[in-house]
Amino acid sequence: MNVSFGVAFLIAGLVFLGLLSQWLAWRVKLPAILFLLVLGILLGPILGWLRPDKIFGLLLFPTISLGVAIILFEGALSLRLSELRGLGTVIQRLLSLGVFSTWAIISVATHWLTHFAWPMAILFGAVTVVSGPTVITPILRSARPNAKIAKVLHWESILIDPIGALLSVIVFEALVANSAATASLGAAGLSFLRIVSVGVTLGVAGGFTLGWILRRRVVPDYLHPLLVLASVLMIFALADALAKDSGLLAVTLIGMVLANMRDIPLDNILDFKESLSILLISLLFIVLAARLNLTEIRAVLGPGLGLLVAIQVLSQPIKVAFASWGSELNWRERVLVAWIAPRGIVAAATAAVLGQTLQAVHYPHAALFVPLTFAVIIASVLLPSLTARPLARLLHVDEKEPQSILIISANPVAQAIAKALEQAGFACLLLDNDFAQIRTARAAGINTFYAHPVSVQADRYLDLLDFGYMLGLAEDHALNIIASMRYKPEFGLDHVFILTDESAIAGRDRQQVAAPYRGRYLFGGDATYVRLSQLLDNGWQIHTTLLSESFSWEAYQEKHRSGFLPLFVITGEHILRVMLAGESIVPASGDRILALIAPSAA
């Protein structure tokens, strides 16, 4: 009973510590993998509290494999082919010429720096060609490169993982066969064909079958996440049973197929898988790092740094040069793509599995295989995490913090607010399917997009990269609600706002839309579309006023006490803060106030 309680408490503690690591990574804008690996090394080799092989036994590596499969599937769900306009050739070359050039350079560098035998060095090169969404995504979030760079790195990070795992398996089988004096290129080739054929067949067939089930509503909505999870795990296990290590290719293809099928309800699935992936990433990195040995870690620090130099100075520039030749990427964008080359969970998990087998057959230097992989992972994540943002700024290929504002509707209220915000330095886009209102807004010089806010047209062609806020200003309150539900995943609940309505003012719970399904209410507690429209019709105008030491917020309120409605505060750092119903903001000196002001108070 005590042992069971101890294990349960340890697992619960790992989940909680994983949460703390993810939160700390968010606060300091670094990839969580760094904190998770340090935590694993602390709990395992340093303190000796976590011994994964003893606790999990034979279930350890099957569980790790299933976890990696879920992570890759979740990443593949974001791979939409429509994003590849003009960049498809670059990504194809990265996954072909780039993989082989990287493999060759890392293999040679590993042989020279570590004195691994050639077969072991070649295997290490195959294991470390991968990248991974678990490390690329937080780096991109921090560095904020332009859309072309972000798309290239995102696609490569997901698609290269099953390729690297496949390459590792082929090389490993040849390496083990060679140690048994039965090496055969023909056998390796047949193994390659078997893995690819099984992975592609089950992945594509499984993806289309799942898509058909989801589209036809054969299973109720609340079971969709469980259906997809169970299917992905089953297909992964079946693929691996038919052709060992074909499962990662299969689950990646399932995700890509679902992501590119039309009319598939994926929102619930994406939310569930994202949360599950964060949990799995946290646990996997802690557990894998806890298996390391301190003596072996110290022994590979020098070679690990040398390999990092080889990757950054030789491997990456050559790979990107091959891939981007004749493409629309300029030299600045190529430099940043080459600089960001982290290794992630697939390298860690593959090295752990293969390293254990190599040690079991007493292969020379096998004990250093896993620590060297982790040294490369840590160094390759830490370097771009600390330098990618400054380098992107230096090269002028960074995106500014998203400050543009998406406004639902092009009615007179929306036009008045958009003009005031644009004069204050915030780009606005009015989204509406009423062409008469769109035409009026265009005549006033306001940017517009002619489509229903939740239409297929908006989904396909509305580029939201620069947008950080949504304001629901439509006269139809239901449209504001629908739009807030659609754009909440894009901007986050804290940046989605809508006008209130009569049911909210009256506090009628039977009619008021619940908070999780709408944005936060704008401006005052009675700021409905009808009221704002009446104020504008009565001559109220939006004015921008700069506060100072001599003209404080209190003085501003006193001056306009006969009639004003504060709308926005723009801080001295040019950050937009929305005045919300039920919340009070006290502007400071240097802030600007945007408010509707009555004619008598102007």
From TrEMBL:
Membrane topology note: Multi-pass membrane protein
Principal location listed in the UniProt entry: membrane
GO MF terms held by the record: antiporter activity
Membrane spanning stretches: 6-25, 32-49, 55-73, 94-114, 120-140, 152-172, 192-214, 226-242, 276-294, 300-323, 335-354, 366-386
Domain of life: Bacteria
Location relative to the cell: Cell membrane
Gene Ontology cellular-component annotations: plasma membrane
One Gene Ontology term from the biological process aspect of the record: proton transmembrane transport
SUPFAM superfamilies: NAD(P)-binding Rossmann-fold domains
Cross-referenced InterPro entries: Cation/H_exchanger_TM, Na+/solute_symporter_sf, NAD(P)-bd_dom_sf
Domain Cation/H+ exchanger transmembrane: from-to ranges: 19-392
Keyword set includes Membrane: yes
Keywords for this protein: Antiport, Cell membrane, Ion transport, Membrane, Transmembrane, Transmembrane helix, Transport
Protein name according to UniProt: Sodium:proton exchanger
